[in-house]
Design brief:
The protein is of the alpha/beta class. It has ten helices and eleven strands. It has two domains: about 90 residues, 3-Layer(aba) Sandwich (Rossmann fold); about 120 residues, NAD(P)-binding Rossmann-like Domain (Rossmann fold, 3-Layer(aba) Sandwich). Bound molecules: the ligand Nc1nc2c(c(=O)[nH]1)N[C@@H](CN(C=O)c1ccc(C(=O)N[C@@H](CCC(=O)O)C(=O)O)cc1)CN2. The site of the ligand Nc1nc2c(c(=O)[nH]1)N[C@@H](CN(C=O)c1ccc(C(=O)N[C@@H](CCC(=O)O)C(=O)O)cc1)CN2 has 20 residues, from helix 2, strand 4, helix 6 and helix 10. It catalyses: (6R)-5,10-methylene-5,6,7,8-tetrahydrofolate + NADP(+) = (6R)-5,10-methenyltetrahydrofolate + NADPH; (6R)-5,10-methenyltetrahydrofolate + H2O = (6R)-10-formyltetrahydrofolate + H(+).
Length: about 290
């Protein structure tokens, strides 16, 4: 039985990091600028802690200055907004990121709106979202940006293909469906109220799954030869990480598939570095846009 080609996000992320080195050097030599990223984590969610630690490590690896600001779960929203105001004014930081999810008493919307769009390296601010939708230069949200980059680096053409996205979150499903459409795919966006999900997903040349539920996609959902991008990160009862796709069953049907772990996650982190370097280049007047 043939097996799908693995899209190795871990090694692609290493490539992205290597490519950033020359841009970071140029910033330093031509403008005396070292890119900087401030990451705010509110509370002690163990998964968020792992992601933020990884982001800080990535920054260190490529030579980006970073600061990890830890705030207690009970931290008042007003105080978080003041921290953002301070970072908005601090020229050492070109990017500001507030790790999501936030505790229930804090409005993610108010927090995201408070970050200056030119420092919004998560690409979540409405100004960046709006620019992305109309195809203007903007910070793209890191997971959708990473997915598009994985397709490009795998030599998978998108134009004219039928892409089906499962999940309509603001972070992944909605933006990736827009980016795929801008790359000339015909896009179907499925969600929790979609009737007969398999009837849609079986028509996908490119299937992107971002639901957050283990094994929602099995072999019966996949067209032979499809490209399958699994965004889900779920933990099994035994503590193992697994995606939204039944990897073992689907890999014999698909032409390409992303693993979990080691697929979309590492590329999400890599694109955050790209956005941070881009933010620094913009302030230094280097590069395009
Ligand atoms: N402010 C933001 N918050 C959140 C985002 C985001 O883009 N910005 N996305 C997700 C979490 N996320 C980034 O923050 C993220 C998730 C997973 C990974 C990753 O590398 N996963 C590894 C496995 C890591 C593990 O051991 O758990 C993999 O898939 O190989 C990176 C980033 C929600 N919040």
């Amino acid at each position: 039985m043939s097996s799908a080609q693995l899209i190795d996000g871990k090694s692609m992320a290493q490539d992205v990091k290597r490519e950033l080195a020359s841009r970071i050097k140029r910033l330093e030599s031509e403008a005396g600028v070292r890119p900087g990223l401030a990451v705010i984590l509110v509370g002690d969610d163990p998964a968020s802690e792992v992601y933020v630690r990884g982001k800080i490590r990535d920054c260190r690896d490529v030579g980006i200055r970073s600061e990890w600001i830890r705030l207690p779960d009970s931290n008042p929203e007003e105080d978080l907004l003041r921290q953002i105001d301070r970072l908005n004014e601090d020229p050492r930081f070109h990017g500001i990121l507030v790790q999501l999810p936030l505790p229930r008493h804090i409005s993610a919307e108010r927090v995201i709106h408070r970050i200056r769009p030119e420092k919004d390296v998560d690409g979540f601010h409405p100004i960046n979202v709006g620019k992305m939708v109309i195809g203007q230069e903007a910070f793209l949200p890191c997971t959708p940006y990473g997915i598009m980059e994985m397709l490009r680096r795998s030599g998978i053409s998108v134009a004219g293909k039928h892409a089906v996205v499962v999940g309509r979150s603001n972070i992944v499903g909605k933006p990736v469906s827009i980016l795929l459409q801008q790359a000339d795919a015909t896009v179907t966006l499925c969600h929790s109220k979609t009737r007969d999900l398999a009837a849609h997903t079986r028509r996908a040349d490119i299937l992107v799954v971002a639901v957050g539920k283990a094994r929602v996609i099995g072999p019966e959902h996949v067209k032979p030869g499809a490209v399958v991008i699994d965004v889900g990160i779920n933990r099994t009862e035994e503590g193992r990480l697994t995606g939204d796709v039944d990897f073992e069953a689907v890999r014999s049907i698909a032409s390409h598939i992303t693993p979990v772990p080691g697929g979309v996650g590492p590329m999400t982190r890599a694109m955050l570095l790209v956005n941070t370097v881009r933010a620094a280049e913009r302030t230094a007047g280097i590069g395009q846009g």
